[in-house]
Design brief:
This protein is of the alpha/beta class. Helices cover about 30% and strands about 25% of the residues. It has 2 domains: about 130 residues, Cytidine Deaminase, domain 2, CATH 3.40.140.10; about 180 residues, Dihydrofolate Reductase, subunit A. The protein has 12 helices and 14 strands. The chain has a 7-stranded parallel beta sheet, with helices on both faces. The chain has a 5-stranded mixed beta sheet with strand order 2-1-3-4-5. Strand 11 and strand 12 form a beta hairpin. Bound molecules: ligand AOF and zinc ion (ZN). The site of ligand AOF has 17 residues, from helix 2.
Length: about 325
Amino acid sequence: MHRCLELAEEGRGFVGNGALVGSFLVRDGKVKAEASHKKFGNNHSERELLEKFDQEIYSEDILYVNLEPCCHTGKTPPCTDIILERGIKNVVFGMMDPDPRVSGKGIEILKAKGVNIIGPVLRAECERLNRGYINLRTKGRPWITLKKAQARDGSIAKPDGSPLKITSKEQDAWSHEWLRAKHDAILVGVGTITNDNPRLTLHELNKKFVQPYRIILDRSVRIPEASNVLCDEHRARTIVIISDKSATSDYAKALKEKGIRLEGIPMEGSNFSWDHLWKVLTTPKEDFFGITSLLVEGGSKTWEAFHSSGFIDEDVLLLG
Ligand code: AOF
Ligand code: ZN
């Protein structure tokens, strides 16, 4: 199952609002073929595996997969169909699929056709890997991690408000690898952009990872045109969330004409309407396939908005 999870990671950053899934086929204790769900809309992992492995299937062969095989026709036909068509007799799975179109039915169908099923196996680890996907299917919103860096005296900036280097190199490397690279998007308020002009990218050492989306909350479209997130090579992976009222401003129109992604969302008091925000962030649109996890990096107003909303799933404090 650990191997399934490694394979599933191949889809990170590509599967949009879908699940991370890896699978492989074992014969006589040896792995015969491996596959993963590589991209939104592409073959699911099991179909990819069984299309690739075109040899005869034996009754002792075992299929391992970290998610219950699906039984519905979405963008691709049901995985249960190809498992049965190919004559797989043994399936080991990691966790149930929280998608209401599946949720146990995939396993039932296979069992009813005489397939031996073992699972859930390593359920906690499987659910941890797909925590974003689970949140989206069960709560209608992404998994939200809040990251805060704070000096030991409690300060987060210099007294005049200018940026203060708080974290060590080691802490930065850790948070790039374990926070940024493990979330589909990084979110900050526009104040962070105007104060620090961060790039919000992954370090060079993380080249094998996909650049997470950069989500900027900017109700009145204050983001400077020259900011790094709008000008660097990853600018197509920046989404600026503005109020629906600001969407008609000349500046918003000018940014849109430059190809910058702006999304107008209604306000509820001083916050964006959360429901609208989740909808925009998790619904596929053109070449954006949706996200399932969000790393909130600041600043203090944004932290406060998320804290008071009660939407935080995980809180990470780096003390420098
Ligand atoms: C599997 N194996 O590799 C994946 C599964 O939009 P679609 O058609 O890709 O369907 C998405 C749903 O399919 C998703 O919510 C989940 O139920 C299942 N994903 N299932 O057996 C896979 N990616
Ligand atoms: Zn499937």
